[in-house]
């Protein structure tokens, strides 16, 4: 794997493997994922359900379910190897250095506590502040995430707020201690489109204000295009393509990424038919021997079913795991073109 | 990874994947099979199940192994400590304690199983009618349940025992008269939840008759709750029986039940503790094992646990 | 295309949610669905689109108003025979692929449920043969008949639900958010499948969704709902090219595009605030609390749902009848 670079990344995940033990078999949820996050990056991890995108960050955050465990790999945060951190050590990091936002804001808020108290709780845990300063900071945070009249909201309970409002509160709590990394797991999936647009705008403006790096997990490429600067596309527990947002959208290499982009409805397109990817994602109890995408790929070759593809570096930032990038495949394509 | 031979002829298009597109690699298993496998992995439940099976086998066959029966008195051999002749000793009338313990276990289990079955029958019927008809019928039926809950169980039982002859039948009726309430409430809640589930709506839209909906969708999906609740009713029925017999309003000698045995053992606790100790251990084992098994079943059949 | 299959007239569905509190889930909605078309119904959560679909399917009794199918009133009380006839012609596909299939039943029994209840006397092998045919129609295979729902992925389950609805050859299908719970690539699969089936069996769809961009690919016409009322209804092309209602405009501009460069340049009509509670809505236009064009007139009188151009209906005071 990669050697220690001269420049240290804020968060580096190396060759991560995560298994989930079900009662009679093992799900290989994450199979060798590596990525790195630099300060001020917004990295989007894109994939369908079951692609391992959520498990990857849960592994990083030590939030794996009881049945899950990291089998191999390293997680390095800010120069520290946190792969084997205990729950206690992790609690010191969570909230103050890495924060997480979940899909459903209701599950991460305590329904019996006022909004203000919940924010102050986090501050009390991680920062030494007077009660007065805490309250001031909580108000400031509520204002920061665009909640009008924070004084009024401060004493309200989560159920008195709408879904979009709650997600704003969750973001305020996550940002309370100025974390270096904010992990957002499908933060807008449960929200309506118009509210989704509001939350995305908020996250973008916040990032430029407080210099947090963001890892965004989503299945929505539209959201990715809106907010991310780096993208990793996951399929079958592996990253199949990664690069800057422009490289992924305009110089797409992997057939899965292509299919994913093609299956998004375009507003200003009159063709009337949608491209799709046939079939169903593989069950990771028994992942395919070769490329996980091969059974659904319309450009699959013999080699794809036999061996897992290696990463091909297309540019400094862009790489793709597909046999089509192999010189032999390029040659074959060239010859075919020649014959015609 | 790099030592494989890559040849050019591997780089030709292949349609091999098409057949695999809808492949499902996990084995086919129904919810019950799944739950059974999960139950088998729960060591506590397996041990509890084995102990229960042994106890039931002893209750049925135990007296056979002994040459004595539970009612024959032998005044030449009273209060004998456990020995080769009398494995569990004898009581104050010289009756064989081994025979009496297993006979008593049999009676206790019988009372419990019959009472639990009655609870199940009445509770499930009442609960499903209440939830399926809904509206005013449901409201009235729920008020009836609330009234029944309001009256202390023990008062009903004691009043009943006073007007009816003491015996197994009376005990069972007394316990069932308000015991089904819990089951009825659970079943009602479960069916109310299922009734608005999309698969039940779909069945209605497909023109499936109410009878079929109940038989094909509602009952199979309520089964888990029913079985698990029964697992908890049985030990509580055993306990109630033992309690009633212990305070002297249950079964009467020479009939034996675990409660009766504990009662007579308690009278001689200072001199012959084994007469209390043995039936007490049996009743504790039965209650604890049923509870552990019930917990295990609940975990194993919880749909949330399925991956 | 011109023959009306389903007509909804001033349909209202209110729920009592407490003392003097009425939730107007569907509030005076009228529209028609033509034979062979797909009408898309779009709106945010809580706008009453699912309630509308379920009221049409007779799962709820309407508070007032009528639903006519082929000119015959089907809302309200029907005889057993009429009810059965209704069932045979109208079917529904549900949102949640996990809750819409009975977890205790095998796929063969799920798909055959309609066959069983319509009293078609089939032998065991005929029944299974039918089921296999239906499964193959939705892209599944013979091997799947003996499996249980939890072994399938979301998209596969949704296709099983479609096969179940098709088993009794319906004419009209209400698809209640059939793609909302699915991944993007699978959404496209299901949409394409529904289109294919529509061509094959000349089906008519009412397609309910919250994602207007996906709806475009399957619908001939699209209706937009807000707080229980229809605010705009027109052909899907016009809806995207020339949306009139300010809410539709905001909805369209909120859709994130899979194109980073366009996204950066794009200016949005961002809606302030959130959808107000549908309980005890005041008079006037329901959208006026979030509308940037709101005037006093909007706050006082409820706009009529009227035709501004041929086939383009809108409920907004900005567009008066010519």
Question: Would you kindly provide a brief summary of this structure?
Answer:
The complex is a heterotrimer of chains A (340), B (307) and C (322). Chain B has 307 residues and is an all-alpha fold.
Mean pLDDT of chain C: 87
**At the third CATH level, what is the topology name of chain A?**
Rossmann fold
- Quaternary status: heterotrimer
Main structural class of chain C: alpha/beta
CATH architecture assignment of chain A: 3-Layer(aba) Sandwich
| DSSP helical segment count of chain A | 13
Strand content of chain C: 15-25%
Coarse morphology of chain A = globular
Most residues in contact: chain pair: A-C, 46 and 45 residues
Find the count of extended strands of chain C (DSSP E, 2+ residues).
12
Largest sheet of chain C: 8 strands, mixed
Overall average pLDDT of chain A: 85
Q: Please trace the helix and strand order of chain A, writing H or E for each element.
A: EEEHEEHEHHHHHEHEHEEHHHEEH
Instruction: Please give the largest β-sheet of chain A.
Output: 8 strands, mixed
Question: What would you note in describing this structure?
Answer:
The complex is a heterotrimer of chains A (340), B (307) and C (322). Chain A is an alpha/beta fold and 340 residues long. Chain A has one domain: Rossmann fold. Chain A has 13 helices and 12 strands. Chain A has helices spanning 53-61, 87-93, 105-108, 115-126, 131-144, 150-154, 163-175, 193-210, 221-227, 245-250, 255-262, 302-306, 327-339; strands at residues 11-21, 26-37, 42-46, 68-77, 80-81, 98-101, 181-185, 213-218, 230-235, 238-244, 311-313, 319-321. An 8-stranded mixed β-sheet of chain A has the order 6-7-8-3-9-10-12-11, sandwiched between helices. In chain A, strands 2-1-4-5 form a 4-stranded antiparallel β-sheet, with helices on one face. The longest helix of chain A is centred in the middle third of the chain and has 18 residues, at 193-210. Chain B is flat and about 95 Å long. In chain B, helix 3 (97-133) crosses helix 9, helix 6 runs antiparallel to helix 8 and helix 7 (198-205) packs across helix 8. Chain B has a single domain, classed as MetI-like fold (Orthogonal Bundle), CATH 1.10.3720. Chain B has helices at 31-41, 43-65, 97-133, 135-150, 153-163, 168-195, 198-205, 210-246, 258-267, 274-301. Chain B is mainly α and 307 residues long. The model of chain B has no long low-confidence stretch (mean pLDDT 83). Chain B is built from 10 helices and no strands. In chain C, strands 6-7-8-3-9-10-12-11 form an 8-stranded mixed β-sheet, with helices on both faces. In chain C, strands 2-1-4-5 form a 4-stranded antiparallel β-sheet. Chain C has a single domain (4-314), classed as Rossmann fold (3-Layer(aba) Sandwich). The two termini of chain C are 27 Å apart. Chains in contact: A-B, A-C, B-C. Chains A and C meet through helix 7, helix 8, helix 9, helix 10 and helix 11 of A and helix 6, helix 7, helix 8, helix 10 and helix 11 of C.
């Amino acid at each position: 794997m990669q050697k220690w670079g001269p420049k240290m990344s804020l968060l580096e995940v190396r060759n991560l493997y995560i298994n989930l033990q079900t009662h009679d078999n093992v799900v290989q949820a994450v199979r060798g994922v590596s990525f790195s996050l630099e300060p001020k990056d917004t990295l989007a991890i894109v994939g369908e359900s079951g692609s391992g995108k959520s498990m990857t960050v849960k592994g990083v955050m030590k939030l794996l379910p009881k049945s899950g465990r990291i089998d191999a790999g390293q997680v390095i945060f800010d120069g520290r190897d946190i792969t084997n951190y205990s729950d206690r050590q992790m609690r010191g990091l969570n909230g103050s250095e890495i924060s997480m936002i979940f899909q459903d804001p209701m599950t991460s808020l305590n329904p019996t506590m006022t909004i203000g108290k919940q924010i102050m709780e986090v501050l009390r845990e991680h920062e030494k502040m007077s009660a007065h300063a805490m309250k001031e900071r909580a108000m400031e945070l509520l204002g920061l995430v665009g909640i009008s009249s924070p004084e009024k909201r401060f004493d309200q309970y989560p159920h008195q707020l709408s879904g979009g409002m709650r997600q704003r509160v969750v973001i305020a709590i996550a940002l309370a201690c100025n974390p270096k990394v904010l992990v957002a797991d499908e933060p807008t999936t449960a929200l309506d489109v118009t509210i989704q647009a509001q939350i995305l705008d908020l996250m973008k403006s916040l990032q430029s204000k407080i210099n947090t790096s963001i890892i965004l997990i989503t299945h929505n490429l539209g959201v990715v295009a809106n907010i991310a600067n780096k993208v990793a596309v996951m399929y079958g527990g592996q990253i199949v393509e990664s690069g800057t947002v422009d490289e992924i959208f305009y110089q797409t290499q992997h057939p899965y990424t292509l299919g994913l982009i093609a299956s998004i409805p375009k507003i200003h397109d009159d063709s009337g038919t949608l491209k799709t990817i046939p079939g169903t994602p593989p069950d990771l109890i028994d992942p395919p021997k070769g490329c996980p995408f091969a059974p659904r790929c319309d450009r699959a070759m013999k080699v794809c079913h036999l061996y897992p593809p290696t990463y091909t570096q297309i540019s400094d930032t862009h790489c793709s795991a597909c046999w089509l990038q192999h010189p032999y495949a390029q040659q074959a394509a060239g010859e075919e073109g020649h014959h015609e | 990874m790099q030592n494989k031979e890559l040849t050019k002829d591997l780089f030709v298009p292949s349609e091999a994947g098409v057949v695999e597109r809808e492949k499902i690699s996990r084995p086919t298993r129904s919810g019950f099979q799944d739950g059974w496998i999960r139950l088998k992995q729960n060591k506590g439940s397996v041990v509890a199940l084995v102990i229960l099976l042994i106890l039931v086998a002893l209750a049925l066959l135990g007296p056979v192994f002994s040459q004595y029966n539970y009612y024959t008195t032998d005044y030449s051999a009273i209060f004998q400590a456990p020995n080769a002749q009398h494995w569990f000793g004898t009581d104050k009338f010289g009756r064989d304690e081994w025979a009496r313990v297993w006979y008593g276990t049999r009676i206790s289990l019988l009372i419990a199983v019959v009472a639990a079955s009655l609870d199940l029958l009445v509770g499930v019927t009442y609960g499903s009618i209440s939830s399926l008809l809904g509206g005013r019928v449901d409201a009235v039926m729920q008020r009836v349940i609330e009234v029944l809950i309001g009256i202390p169980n023990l008062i009903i039982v004691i009043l009943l025992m006073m007007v009816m002859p003491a015996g197994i039948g009376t005990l069972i009726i007394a316990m069932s008269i308000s015991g089904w309430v819990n089951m009825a409430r659970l079943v009602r809640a479960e069916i109310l939840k299922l009734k608005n589930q999309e698969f039940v709506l779909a069945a209605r839209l497909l023109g499936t008759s109410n009878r079929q909906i109940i038989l094909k969708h509602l009952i199979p999906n309520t089964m888990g709750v029913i079985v698990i609740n029964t697992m908890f009713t049985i030990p509580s029925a055993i306990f109630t029986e033992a309690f009633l017999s212990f305070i002297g309003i249950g079964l009467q000698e020479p009939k034996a039940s675990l409660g009766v045995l504990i009662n007579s053992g308690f009278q001689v606790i200072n001199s012959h503790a084994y007469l209390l100790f043995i039936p007490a251990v049996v009743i504790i084992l039965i209650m604890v094992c049923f509870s552990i098994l019930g917990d295990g079943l609940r975990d194993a059949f919880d749909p949330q646990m399925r991956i | 295309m011109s023959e009306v299959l389903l007509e909804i007239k001033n349909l209202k569905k209110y729920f009592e949610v407490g003392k003097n509190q009425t939730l107007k889930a569907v509030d005076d909605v009228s529209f028609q669905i033509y034979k062979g078309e797909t009408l898309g119904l779009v709106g945010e959560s809580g706008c009453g689109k699912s309630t509308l679909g379920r009221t049409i399917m007779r799962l709820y009794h309407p508070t007032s108003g009528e639903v006519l199918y082929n000119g015959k009133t089907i809302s309200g009380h029907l005889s057993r025979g009429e009810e059965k006839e209704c069932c045979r012609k109208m079917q529904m596909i549900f949102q949640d692929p996990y809750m819409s299939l009975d977890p205790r039943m095998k796929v063969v029994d799920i798909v055959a449920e309609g066959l069983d209840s319509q009293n078609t006397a089939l032998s065991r092998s005929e029944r299974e043969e039918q089921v296999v045919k239906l499964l193959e129609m939705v892209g599944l295979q013979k091997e799947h008949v003996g499996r249980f729902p939890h072994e399938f992925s979301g998209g596969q389950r949704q296709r099983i639900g479609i096969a179940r609805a098709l088993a009794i050859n319906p004419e009209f299908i209400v698809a209640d958010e059939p793609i909302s719970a699915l991944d993007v690539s699978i959404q496209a699969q299901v949409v394409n499948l529904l289109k294919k089936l529509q061509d094959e069996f000349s089906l008519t769809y009412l397609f309910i969704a919250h994602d207007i961009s996906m709806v475009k690919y399957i619908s001939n016409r699209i209706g937009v709902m807000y707080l229980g009322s229809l605010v705009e209804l027109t052909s899907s092309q016009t809806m995207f090219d020339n949306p009139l209602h300010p809410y539709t405009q905001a909805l369209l501009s909120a859709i994130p595009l899979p194109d980073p460069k366009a996204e950066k340049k794009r200016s949005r009509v961002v809606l302030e605030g959130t959808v107000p509670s549908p309980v005890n809505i005041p008079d006037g236009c329901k959208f006026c609390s979030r509308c940037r064009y709101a005037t006093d007139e909007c706050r006082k009188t409820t706009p009529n749902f009227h035709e501004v151009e041929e086939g383009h209906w809108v409920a907004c005071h900005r567009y008066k009848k010519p």
